């Protein structure tokens, strides 16, 4: 019978400041933001790829946290997703796409 040791992960504070740990977190937040916005619009990965002038494999790699969010990529996806991009390291998640103000 399980004693619940793996019910939550505890990351030591010194690891949270490691550049590789933070970069992985940014990729995960970016991936989730792209997926959430795409899903909210009811689009397939193929539709987003077409609108962003990327391949469907590129979109899948982004949504699998396999791509670093460069400024050029963020701008391209924000335009394609008809949204603004918000990055705030003081919040969790740090990254999200938002509807543009009317």
UniProtKB/TrEMBL annotation:
Coiled coil: none annotated. It holds the Pfam family HTH_31. InterPro entries: Cro/C1-type_HTH (IPR001387), Lambda_DNA-bd_dom_sf (IPR010982). It comes from the Bacteria. Signal peptide: none annotated. This is HTH cro/C1-type domain-containing protein. It comes from Streptomyces glaucus. The lineage of its organism: Bacteria, Bacillati, Actinomycetota, Actinomycetes, Kitasatosporales.
